[in-house]
Amino acid sequence: NISDTLSITVNGYTDGSTVINRTNAGRIAVGGAFNSGSSFQVDQCNVINTMSTIIVAFMNSATFTAALLEIRRTVIDTNGIFAFYNKAHLYAGGVHRLVDNFIRTTYPSQFTTGNAPRQAAIGYYYANYVYSGAVLEMSNNEVMVGSNYSYGLYVRPSSGRIIHDGLNRYTSGHIYIYHLSSTANNFFVVSQSTSLSSIIYYASGTGVVTTNDTIIIYNLDSDIVNIVVGAANDLTIDSSGANVGTFTVLISGAINTCAVGVCGNTGGSLSVTMSAATSSIGVAVADSAFTGMVALSMGGISSSSISVNRTTMGQFTNTGVYKAGSALLIDQSVIKNTVSTYQAAFSNSATFTAALLEVRRSNISNVERYAMWFAAHTYSGAIHRLVDNIISTSFTTKITSGNPPVQGAVAYYYAYYFYSGALLEMSNNQVSVGTMYSYSLYLRLNGGRIMHDGLNRYTSGHVVVSHLSSTANNYFVVSQSTSLTSIVYDASGTSVVSTNDNIGVYNLGSTSVDINMAAATDFTIDSSGANVGAFSVSVASTLTRGTINFDHNAGGSLSVSMVGTTTDTSVTTTDYALTGRVTFSLAAFADSTVIVNRTSMGQFTSDGALKSGAALMIDQSVIKNTISSNQAAFTNSATFNSALLEVRRSNISNVERYAMYFAAHVYSGAIHRLVDNIITTTFTTKITTGNPPVQGAIAYYYANYFYTGALLEMSNNDVSVGTMYSYSFYVRLNGGRIMHDNLNRYTSGYIVVVHLATTTGNHFVVNQSTSLTSITYNAEGTSHDTLGIYNLDCTTIAITIATATNLTVNSSGANVGDFSLTTTGTLSAGSVNFDRHYGGALSVTMAGSTTATAITTIDSTLTGIVTLSLTTYTGSTTTVNRTSMGQFVSDGAYKTGAYLMIDQTLINKTTTSTAAAFTNSATFTASLLEVRRSTISNVERYAMYFAAHVYSGATHRLIDNIITTTFTTKITSGNPPVQGAIAYYYAFYFYSGAVLELSNNQVFVGTMYAYAFYVRLNGGRVVHDGLNHYTNGHIVVSHLSSSANNYFIVNKSTALTSFTYDTSGASVVSTDDIVGIYNSDCVTTLINMAATTNLTMTTSASQFDTYTVTFSSTVTNSRVITMDSVIAAYITVTVPSYLSSMFIVNRTSMSRFILTGAVNAGSSFLFDQSVIKNTVSTFQAAFTNGATFTAALLEVRRCTVSNVERYAMWFAAHTYSGAIHRLVDNIISTSYTTQITTGNPPVQGAIAYYYAYYFYTGALLEISNNEVTVGTIHSYSFYVRLNGGRIMHDGLNHYTSGHVAVSQLSASKNNYFVVNNSTSLTSIVYYSDGVSTNDTVGIYNLDSGIVNIVVDAANDLTIDSSGANVGTFTVLISGAINTCAVGVCGNTGGSLSVTMSAATSSIGVAVADSAFTGMVALSMGGISSSSISVNRTTMGQFTNTGVYKA
3-state class of 585 per DSSP? Predict the structure, then answer.
């Protein structure tokens, strides 16, 4: 026990040992020099200084060199400024060891004078050092100071090292370790200390290098920890459980292998600074809590790792340079700045190059402008990784000045970038800002890339990523965020190319999203569940292999703009609900797709240029514009070239002018496809200015076209407009084609399709539409077009096509006010069909050449005009079936193989215009016009009017029709026919080879002045069978030139005014004609024919007033038959030469029959069972023959021929060789009673051959069994003169009165003239002025005033009379006779005279059983070998004169 001082001083103490054990002292003082091998040891002592505050309790002033100072288990306690004070150098090999001691100074005040340390528990004077090779060891010391101004430990090693393990405990004050020069293997641990003012470990002096240092701060409480190191090798700094107000680590020099650990600390701030370029650094902050800032400053670290784990702090800053292999890792930490300092909670100003910054599972928040602030470049290979963090700033003020981002949560200052090869990774961060004006994320990448996955969540503010240069493999996803002001992904800088980028916007709310690219390759944008006010994507230059998806989004507007060339890209919008506009600007979009599915929006616009392989597709979407803004709901201003626009199963509506508006060209290979949509504009105002279409549902602007190879497809769209003035559909195709199928439905308005150039394969069908104003289809040229109009209601349809091939036009179930189809150029292989078509007018005009085309109208109902205008129609067909209409008009030219067929159709014209119900102005050549089973009626002048030529090979066929005109006014001017039912205008003809066929038509005209049928054939022929029925008017058939095989029958017609069949033109030859009138009623029938061959003309069961047949030239091999008919006036036949032909009248009655002309070889006029009864006093014969007969037959059989006038039958023409007149079984009478006293015989008579006309040699007159009556004895019952001809007049004829006279003017033979059973004859005269051979003259059973038989010369003459009562019977044979028999048997009468003037032989005259009141006189000029007898006869006289010879 030493109450005061224990002082030990040695000088040059070597290999010695000084030990103080279990000793108490007031103070210990050691001085001198402890040298090699020596030691000074204090153990279990108590050094308690209470003497003076400036007295050191334990004072060492001894140097130690390779010697030991050890203080162990000792109490060093003082009320002074120092407890242990060292004021001597510690040299190499020297050791100061303080172990298990209690060292305290209770000095309470700040000592302000002297050099450091001024006051301390363990104080090494600043000028005395621990030199190289020396060691200060401290272990398990309890160190206390009475004031925080004191040093618990102060030491300045100069290359020496310190071993200060974790068992030392400091209560307060400062700890200061100051290395003045390089050192190694220091081990400095402060642990289990409380209320320290500071811990300072300083090794940063000039040239100071520490090697293998370990600095540990454990389980303590200190205001300050400052670790300042210059250069270092293998440095370890570790802190755990420390509560440090300000913890600073500063390494100012080069470092090789450094570990800094802060674990479980608390306190104010932490600063780790490595000023110089370093490598192999490890900084770990873990499980700590700082109220202030954690600041990292790395001068240039590489291959290093810095981590902050499970640590809270007020702010975090990081500066410096992170190089290859370095990492800054922040995990499970809280950075919470609650002080308004305009500082960021997290601030990084360190550049990173091939290094990592990772913030993970941390909470970073700030009441100020920034949560995380980055203000340094990030270079190649570097990564910033933000994962699983909560990042927020509650700052609510809007900052209006400064460079962006002026405020934000994750804010990379605009002037600092991620360079090429650098990467920002963000995943599962929860980010919120206090105002919508703040940036939740702001980043500019200058070649760097971002990996920002879909787990990040933002509450509000802006999210901005900018690329300043080319980059690749970016992955930017924003998800599960609410109330964002904007999301901007901007890679739009000049020459920026983004490669393999992925951008996602998911399950968030944002006022705007802007994705802007310059150029991109393998680019993906994906968005789902996002509610975005304005979403925009823009690519300023090339985009290759892009994928853009919008799925289940909502919001205001969407804009996709691709300004440059885009290839192999897809843009998809699915299940998106937008209140505003969707805009796609696709400047050069190739091999790419835009798809909009199940999306609703206020407007849709697209522009740009879609190139080869591109597609814009909209499906199951709603575009509903409810704002009156003169904007279309859907607007496309994008050109398409080998690309597709498809809108399918969508609802597009607008309260304004347009539902869908297109204002760009569509080029070759492109398709616009509209399928299954509802397209509506409710706009009701009529727009009167502007280029078409000024308003509409589907509106392609007139100056923008579908070019050649482009296609418009439309199917199953429901289209409606709010006014009839709007266009439901308007498009102009310039070589492009349309596929518009029959499932589209329009409610009202206009439909317009215009082709400006040739096109192929159009399919245009409008179906199930109502109240349409018009449909217009106008095509310059087409091939394989199909047009359909089905089940709709439309005011006007106009289809105009220039040149076309394989054109199909169909209409079914349509109600159209005015339908017009026009082709202005050539048309081949066309098909035009109208099926169940309704409405007003229908017009088909084919102005060019038309071939192989079919036009069909079936089951249709039209109130107006059907017009067919077919300019050159070849090999084509037009069919109208089961259709009704107001008028039908046809014009043009039907060429080879063409036909117009109308069947089961009603043409009912009820308007009082002068137009015909049916008008044909079309020429036909080798073609067919057929009207069958139809009703054609008109209240005006014409039912059917034809005003065009019909050329060779053409046929007009009218079959089974009802054709009427009820017009009753007589038209008195104009060329024929001025009015009529079937009226072929007189100036237009059927030419050679053309045919008009009519069968079973019912024809009615309202006035007898109208033409029921009028036609002029110029070489053509008519086939008009017996099934046609005419009620009124005229029938006229005129042949202007030769024709053949005409078949013209009128049957069952009534009240006809006239029937005219006229082939009388110059040089006209009719061949194989058949003309018939059956069961008809006609006022006048005129048959006028020129040369005729093989004619068959039949009249049967008909009634005429007059019937005139005029042949103006030769008739050959023909038949004219009239049977079972009634002709009220006459039949007149005129024929200049009738060859091998027949004229037959059977069972027909008439007033007169007149024949003139020449009936030649092989011909016959045959009358049978007919009545010719003239009841009018006209001085005309009932039967007049003025025609010569040559080798021809005139036969009147079983007829009644009667007249009240002079002649019953009158013959006034020669009858030549081979001709026969045969009158058989007739009743022939004239009741004319006046005697005509002037004129050549016979001046009156029943059968009267005018005296100047004869039967020439070879001609024959046969008369048999005729009942002949004349009204006066002065008339000739029979008068004929034969000039070589002969008579066969058998005994069956019966004459009632008058004269019977036969005169032979020249030799004849085989005449057989018998008059029998006749009464009251005035005379019978048989006169032969020639040589008669084998004649037979018989007078039997009759009563006649005179019988004169006068024969010139005769051979084999027989004259026989029996039972005749003859006043004067005279037989006079004046010439030579060879064999003659005259017999009179049973006669009565006045006288009988038989005279044979010339010498004759072989004569027999026998008179027997007769009674004459007068003379029987015989006069024989010189008979020989003859016998004359008078037997059983009575007479008044008998005379015989002459010469009887041998």
Answer: strand
How far apart are alpha carbons 1218 and 1164 in whole angstroms? 11
CA distance 346 to 353: 20
Q: 24 forms bridges with which residues in the sheet?
A: 46
Diameter over CA atoms, the chain: 241
Residue-wise pLDDT tens digits, 3-40: 899 999 998 889 989 999 999 999 999 999 999 999 99
Residue 1355 burial (10 A CB sphere; 0-12, 13-18, 19+)? middle
Angle (CA) 454 458 460, round 5°: 150
| pLDDT score at 251 | 82
pLDDT category at 1392 given cuts 50, 70, 90 is very high
Strand partners, 868: 844, 890
Distance, in Å, from the CA atom of 505 to the CA atom of 484, rounded to the nearest integer, reads 12
d(CA 643, CA 1120): 77
* Pair 210, 237: CB distance under 8 Å: no
C-alpha distances out from residue 290 to 246, 268, 928, 1044, Å: 9, 5, 108, 125
Q: At 930, list the tokens.
A: 């057929």
Q: Which residues pair with 517 in a beta bridge?
A: 491, 539
Question: What 3-state DSSP class applies to 973?
Answer: coil
Strand partners, 1328: 1304, 1351
Task: Give the mean model confidence (pLDDT) for residues 198-208.
Answer: 84
List pLDDT tens digits, range 614-650. 888 888 888 888 877 778 888 888 888 888 888 888 8
Q: With 0-12 CB in 10 A as exposed, 13-18 as middle and 19+ as buried, what is 117?
A: buried
* Secondary structure letter of residue 1307 according to DSSP: -
Contact 524, 498 (CB under 8 A): no
Given this model, what pLDDT does residue 1434 score?
Answer: 94
- The distance of Cα 1108 from the centroid of its chain, to the nearest Å, equals 65
Q: What residues have CB less than 8 Å from 52, skipping those under 6 apart?
A: 80
Residue 1419: strand pairing partners: 1395, 1441
The better pLDDT of the pair 182, 515 is held by 182
Burial of 1211 (0-12, 13-18, 19+ CB in 10 A): buried
Backbone angle region of 195, left / alpha / beta, with phi > 0 → left and psi within -120 to 50 → alpha: left
User: Is 90 within 8 Å of 62 (Cβ atoms)?
Assistant: no
Alpha-carbon span 1142 to 1126, nearest angstrom: 20
3-state SS, residue 192: coil
The pLDDT tens digits for 1040-1091 are 888 788 788 888 878 878 878 887 777 788 788 888 888 878 788 777 777 7
The amino acid sitting at 779 is: A
- pTM (global) more than 0.85: no
1017 Cβ partners below 8 Å, 6+ apart? 989, 990, 994, 996, 1037, 1038, 1039, 1040, 1041, 1043, 1046, 1063
Least confident window among 107-111, 565-569, 938-942: 565-569
β partners of residue 266: 243, 289
Query: What average pLDDT does this structure show over 880-903?
Result: 84
Q: Phi first, then psi: what are they for 476, rounded to 5°?
A: -125, 110
- The number of helices, as runs of H, and strands, as runs of E, in the chain is 0, 159
Q: How far apart are CA 49 and CA 26, in angstroms?
A: 5
The single-letter code of the amino acid at 493 is G
Residue 686 CA to residue 890 CA, distance in Å, equals 37
CA dist 1398 and 1395 (Å) reads 9
Cis peptide upstream of residue 692 (ω within 30 degrees of 0): no
Average of pLDDT values for 1417-1438? 91
Task: Answer for the pair 679, 709: CB distance below 8 angstroms, yes or no.
Answer: no
The answer, yes or no, to whether residue 1179 has pLDDT greater than 80, is no
Of 966, 911, 956, 961, give the one whose Cα is nearest residue 936.
961
